[in-house]
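TASK: fixed-backbone design
INPUT:
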């Protein structure tokens, strides 16, 4: 069963829990707004269902309320930043504001952010950049229990390692491509498990390396105490992209890569390499505006495949879902809501 909530109801409840866990009112609002925006966008895996994990991470000491981004290096066009295990919703915004300012001043910025707690939906950071008419490219790694198997492997060796590209398009909504290199996000399996659903074939292997449709294999320990794993998208191609995200988002940023046995820690630590480009300073802005718009319109003019609903570009589904969920509300399954309530109780908020 599920209940429907307005976006504001969820913001209020989540902000109260995050504040009870030690955050300032402003940080709690920022975290709650970001999580609810993920739900509104249709990405429930990165929405308010993360609150229980955040609370556990705070209580364990793996997530530090009210931390700020630390500038390790700043040469104008390059930034190296340390997130100091702060809430990614706050650290990510601070980092992106710094990177955007540098890109607008110099024309580009390469920003290496390490040691941030969960950055949430990476598309949010691309949306910040395209709102300033900047192109953004993001490579992210995940330091947490490894839940994705390498191509040809039989157990989890790395995280869902997302990649994101944002491109502003003159006269249209932006192109925002945001995807996990696993076939689906880990959080989607948590949602499916809480809702008591099985998932389509080809997404998962069980704890013995065999295909399964049970999302529980990556959510709770199985009979032998082990977990299953998600598969990468596109077989060896998605696997290659996942490795690139680990090397760029983890090794190059200084945040580190995963190469140790799994533990039960609840913290989710991200590294993110971001490349920001100002087309207006590249000398190709006029042709860029013309050609980007022409190409997208060319795509949209094509006939839709039978039953497809027509051609869309990345970012459109999220914008459509936001409009609908703002009107109709956001459904939260009973199990997820119970976990959120239990998280509130842990920090003295009974709400």
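OUTPUT:
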């Amino acid at each position: 069963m599920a209940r429907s909530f307005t976006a504001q109801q969820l913001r209020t409840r989540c902000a109260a829990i995050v504040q009870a866990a030690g955050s300032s009112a402003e940080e709690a609002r920022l975290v709650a707004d970001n999580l609810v925006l993920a739900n509104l966008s249709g990405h429930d895996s990165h929405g308010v269902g993360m609150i229980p994990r955040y609370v556990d991470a705070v209580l364990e000491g793996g997530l530090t309320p009210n931390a700020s981004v630390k500038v390790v290096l700043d040469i104008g066009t390059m930034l190296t930043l340390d997130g100091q295990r702060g809430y990614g919703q706050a650290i990510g915004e601070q980092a992106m504001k710094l990177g955007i300012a540098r890109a607008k001043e110099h024309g580009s910025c390469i920003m290496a952010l390490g040691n941030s707690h969960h950055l949430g939906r990476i598309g949010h950071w691309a949306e910040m950049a395209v709102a300033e008419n900047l192109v953004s490219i993001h490579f992210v790694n995940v330091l947490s229990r490894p839940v994705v198997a390498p191509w040809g492997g039989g157990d989890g060796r790395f995280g869902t390692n997302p990649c994101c590209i944002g491109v502003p398009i003159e006269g249209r909504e932006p192109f925002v491509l945001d995807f996990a290199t696993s076939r689906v996000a880990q959080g989607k399996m948590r949602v499916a498990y809480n809702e008591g659903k099985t998932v389509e074939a080809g997404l998962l292997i069980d704890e013995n390396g065999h295909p399964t449709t049970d999302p529980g294999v990556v959510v709770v320990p199985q009979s032998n105490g082990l977990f299953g794993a998600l598969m990468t998208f596109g077989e060896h191609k998605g696997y290659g992209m996942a490795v690139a995200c680990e090397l760029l988002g983890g090794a190059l940023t200084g945040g580190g890569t995963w190469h140790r046995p799994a533990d039960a820690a609840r913290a989710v630590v991200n590294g993110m390499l971001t490349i920001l480009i100002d087309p207006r300073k590249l000398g190709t802005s006029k042709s860029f505006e013309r050609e980007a718009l022409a190409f997208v319109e060319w795509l949209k003019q094509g006939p839709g495949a039978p039953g497809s609903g027509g051609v869309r570009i990345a970012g459109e589904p999220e914008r459509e879902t936001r409009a609908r969920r703002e009107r109709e509300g956001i459904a939260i399954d009973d199990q997820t809501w119970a976990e959120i309530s239990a998280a509130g109780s842990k920090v003295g908020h009974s709400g």
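COMMENT: Residues 185 and 280 are 35 Å apart (CA to CA).
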